[in-house]
Amino acid sequence: MKRREGNQELHQHNHTRRGSSSVLEKTVHHISESLEATLFAENIAQRHGLLQRLDPRVKVITLLLLVVTVALVRGLPILGILYIMALALAALSRIPLGFFLKRTLVFIPLFTGIIALPAIFNIVTPGKPLVELYDTGRALSWGPIGLPQHLTVTDTGITVATRLILRVSASLSFTVLLLLTTRWASLLKALRVLGVPRVFIVILGMTYRYIYLLLHTINTMFMARKSRTVGRLSASENRRWLTSTMGLMVDKSYTLSENVYQAMLSRGFRGEVAIMDTFTLRRADIVWACVTLAMATGIFLMDR
To answer: For residue range 16-54, what is the model confidence (pLDDT) as tens digits?
Structure first.
C-alpha cells in the first residue's frame, strides 16, 4: 500500500514537472514565432509588389480612404467586394495568402464574433424568425433573471452580424496591408509629413523597436535557462524563476530606456527623429490615387 501511494505521488510530481516544462517550452516557442513573424513582415515590405512600389504618403492616404469607405457603406455585397479587393491587393503585393489571413482573421471569431453573436437573436434584433431555439409559451423568471417567451434567430440579426464581421474584416485587412507593405521607418516619416504630431511618431518608433528588442532578450533568457537546467524543476521553482525574471526585465527596460535617451541627447536629439528616406511622387502613385478615389466615389454612389 505504501509503495502504491509512493508511486502515485512520484507520478503526480513528474506530471507537474512535465507540465511546468511544457509551459516553459511553449513560451519559448511563441516568443520565437513572434520574432520570426516580425522579420518576415520586414522582408515582405522589401518585395517588388504593387503596394510596395507606391509612395508611402500616397499609400497611407489611399488605404485610409478605403478604410473610411468600409466604415460608411452598408450594403453586404459592397462590403464583400471591398474584402475581396483587399485579398486581391495582398496577392498583387506578393503577400502569402495564409500569412495574410492568419494576421487578419484570427481575431474576428475571438472579438467581433463575440460582439456580433447576441445581435442574431430576436431579443436584440427583431425580425423574421429563421430558426426557433425554444418556445415556452410564457415568459420565465428566476428572481431577477428572466427569459423571453421564445428565442429565435432572425433574418435582420443575421444581416447585422454579417455586416459587422465583413466591415471589421475589410477594415483590418486594409490596415494590415499598409503595415506589411511599408517599412516602419518610412511609415512613420509619411505620418509625420501628413501632420501627425511629433510626440506620437517618437513614441510609436521607440515602442516598435523596443518591443522587438525585449522579445529577443526574453527569448535569450529562456533559452539560456533551459540549456543550464539539469532534469526537471518543480512548479514552485518555475514560478520563482518567472517572478525574478519579470522583475529583472522591468529593471532592465528602465535602465535601457534611460541610457538610450541620454545617448540620443548627446548626439543632438531634440525631439525630431531624422529619417534618411526620400519620397518621390511618380506617375504610378498619381494613377493609383486617382483609381482609388474613383473607386471610393463609385462605391458610395452604388451604396446609395
So the answer is: 444 444 555 565 555 556 555 655 567 788 888 899 999
Grid cell at residue 302: 452604388
- Cell numbers at residue 295, please? 473607386
- Say which amino acid occupies 265: L
φ/ψ of residue 47, rounded to 5: -80, 165
How many Å apart are CA 71 and CA 282, to the nearest integer? 29
- 3-class SS letters over the chain: CHHHHHHHHHHHHHHHHHHHHHHHHHHHHHHHHHHHHHHHHHHHHCCCCCHHHCCHHHHHHHHHHHHHHHHHCCCHHHHHHHHHHHHHHHHHCCCCHHHHHHHHHCCHHHHHHHHHHHHHECCCCCCCEEEEEEECCCCEEECCEEECCEEEEEHHHHHHHHHHHHHHHHHHHHHHHHHHCCCHHHHHHHHHHCCCCHHHHHHHHHHHHHHHHHHHHHHHHHHHHHHCCCCCCCHHHHHHHHHHHHHHHHHHHHHHHHHHHHHHHHCCCCCCCCCCCCCCCCHHHHHHHHHHHHHHHHHHHHHC
Global pTM reads 0.74
Q: pLDDT (tens digit, 9 = 90+) per residue, 187-230?
A: 888 888 888 888 888 888 777 777 777 777 777 777 777 777 76
